[in-house]
Amino acid sequence: MMILLLDKLTKEWRQLNHISAESNTLSPYGEILVDFSFSDRLFCGCLSSVMKSTCSSFQCERKEPFHVLSVVSFHFLSHVEEVLNHATLEESLKSFTCVEEMTGTNQIVTLNNQKEDGTLQTRIHQLPPILFIQLKRFTYSPSAQSVQKLNSFFSFPLEMDMGPFTDNNHSENVYCLQSVFIHGGTLSAGHYYSYVCTQRNGVPCNGAW
Questions:
Q1: Which of 83, 166, 175, 191 has the fewest C-beta atoms under 10 angstroms from its C-beta?
Q2: Phi and psi at residue 91, in whole multiples of 5°?
Q3: Is 158 exposed, middle or buried (0-12, 13-18, 19+ CB in 10 A)?
Q4: What is d(CA 142, CA 184) in angstroms, rounded to the nearest whole number?
Q5: Rounded to two decimals, what is the model's pTM?
Q6: E strands along the chain, which residues?
Q7: Distance between CA atoms of 109 and 18, rounded to whole angstroms?
């Protein structure tokens, strides 16, 4: 939903400013982008994933841009109970940025093509001016052999300090909630609706949504 919205905004911005779709540029993180349009300046942040070996001095870092921060995933069965127990946005963000042990079949591969035990941690390297957070509220059920939607309770604050989840210190880490997009229905059918914070002259009205 968010990706489609951002793509639509970017295409309309290109048309209004007569920007060619073939014009390429580099983002501040070195990745090739179609264009560094207003949507990138407003919504694009950067993630930093650091992989370290516990057996040697090997360490590598990968930076990756993002437009939507997805904090819950269903890809690994070991995460199912963890996801179900996440009742707040802060808990989900802590899980997203926690240190993951890379052992057994998940060992890291060094520059010498050697497999070693290590750790992997993803943190936010740079925050965008406007932050989209997507909750992946679904998981795979082995018994039903299908993907199922999670409808457990989940809360989020009106203000959120993202500082504890970054790898550097910034003074502007507090975000104010402006809108909430909600999906009603099942994974195969349903519709979206939203709540938007009412503002007057750019100032949020107390408790008005």
A1: 191
A2: -65, -40
A3: exposed
A4: 24
A5: 0.73
A6: 25-26, 32-33, 45-53, 59-66, 68-70, 100-102, 108-109, 115-116, 118-126, 132-134, 138-141, 146-149, 159-161, 174-176, 179-185, 190-196, 199-200, 203-204
A7: 46
Burial 109-141 (b: 16+ CB within 10 A, else e): ebeeeeebebbeebbbbbbbeebbbebebebee
Q: Which long-range contacts (CB under 8 A, 24 or more apart) does 172-177 make?
A: 172/127, 173/127, 175/131, 176/204
pLDDT tens for the chain, 209 residues: list them.
555 666 666 666 666 666 555 555 545 555 444 444 667 788 889 999 999 999 999 999 999 999 899 886 443 444 444 445 578 899 889 888 999 999 999 899 988 888 999 999 999 999 998 899 988 877 777 777 778 787 778 888 989 999 999 987 665 689 989 889 888 888 788 888 888 888 766 666 666 77
For 187, residues 6+ apart whose C-beta sits below 8 A from its C-beta are 138, 147, 148, 149
